[in-house]
């Protein structure tokens, strides 16, 4: 993905990340107010693509929603869990505490909260993101040029925060699981005055767990509070704040080598880790927001939001590079580093929405603007003894003398970033059964400062259009089509050590949508074509400067997608979908072959009438084979690493003891499949084997 941040810093430089490995920094912008409140697995209303509050059927793009009930049913306590259950999304987990995501062949770099967000740092999410804050997670696939402007034609992920309820409601849940997993969740919502015009909600979670990976363990603390107040009959004011503390010990920075010097694949135990016993990777994420909604007497509405974000990281890490010998297992080398970062951002968004009468019909209109500014500071200290040999990883216990991290030779970053956008959307009511949506966003992006020895200065602006149409064929079925564009300035250095130009992208899709049982069940089928031009892809590591250099490539993704979500009967719910794509360069050759060409995601539950209170369910994640063309052996033989197609089956059962108590059992990877979840880098590690979790909840 393109990036407004500098090329991946030396913290990751030895890894030589490919594809969209340098996308931009995560913050919150672009406001969306979500009105539809759904129960079960149905989609409800969203406003992520146009600011207009539309159902899934009314939205002329592919969209999937994972609701709170599905999260609770399948113990989806992290964002990676949620996105692994979402149609068309592939979670590229290359390390224990950093992750890439792809959709339609390209990297997802836009994470939003209540519709506000900028691309996150270097196209990669640092740390574990907990789901305790959120009521639902929406994934809009394709280019989101109206509401995101900068990014990729892949998908935009919108996390919808929990909000206070007018009536008192509270719950607590205790969970225990494999590898000494312990977790406590508490969620309380209450009116704060007699009529509920002022109300609040508080959420807290604590988690402590070891892992199937040698030496790895993690502690998480999650806190969230929000207050809403009705200021008169027409105005609602809300304010909230959240804090998440991640404290992993012996995390993996980088991962296992995938092949030996003779080109044959490595085959370590599932538990094998490259982490030293002294390493850690602490992150704190603080977010705060204020939003206001005012409804005018003529049906128009004004919405404004201010968001603040601060991300602070501190780590001492141990990276292993090199290629081991097949016979001895020797050949890996040490790369210890200490790293700190401090990111802070402030942003504001405001828009008007309402209807205008023209030609005897009422048409929906949105006009708005937003502005955000972020400051980023980073420091990398390189440990003594880089290049020292590491024992055979298959027998190594993680003990390596902790080196000094002298300030001499350190590198860092100090730069700021600013983005400003003006946007407008009109949903033309051309007939009772035909709606045309047109819109555009004009965005200016600026950055200035320095990063790891390179000056980072650019000023880019672009207008990105959007057009979509929905034609209702009947009360149940609609056909739709849409086209959108997106762009992103890049600060990756090319092979000539000059900045690459901005990447541009587009998404076109044509499809049919169905809606049954008053919106309780939605399904869609889409044909799509996504393009990116001048996309930064790793061209290798420059040992002289300590930087990864990039080349600009063009790529096109075409394919189809099926998605379904909601209640099929009173007792049967389903959510999931199937994606198949082709991803090629301009010469028709396969590119980004580490992206699976076929993905199946399916979750389903059934209430058992014969046993009141009993619900059983299953989840299935399947993907086609992937490969990575690594390099060549000493005698010139090409090295290709492959991960065969695999399926991961999960089972769940919940029994409710009356209205207050329930117990849920989840079993993941039932068949104990051994697999590498990602070939995004020239390193990888194995996914979790079979594991079990039991949770007991109480509602009060």
Could you please describe the fold and organization of this structure?
- The chain has 700 residues and is an all-beta fold.
- Helix content is 2%, strand content 56%.
- The protein has two helices and 37 strands.
- The strands form six sheets. The protein has a 22-stranded antiparallel beta barrel.
- A hairpin with a 3-residue loop joins β14 (217-231) and β15.
- The longest helix has 6 residues, at 68-73.
- It is globular.
- The relative contact order is 0.16.
- Residues 1-38 have low confidence and may be disordered.
Attribute tags:
700 residues, mainly beta, four-stranded mixed beta sheet, 37 strands, 2% helix, globular
Terminal Cα span: 46 Å
The whole-angstrom Rg is: 25 Å
pLDDT averaged residue by residue: 89
- The assigned structural class equals mainly beta
Q: Which geometry do the CA atoms define?
A: globular
Give the helix proportion (percent range): under 10%
Classify the beta-strand content into a percent band: over 45%
Q: Low-confidence parts, pLDDT < 50 over ≥5 residues?
A: 1-38
Based on the structure, what is the oligomeric state of the protein chains?
Answer: single chain
Largest sheet: 22 strands, antiparallel, barrel
Count the E strands.
37
The tally of helices reads 2
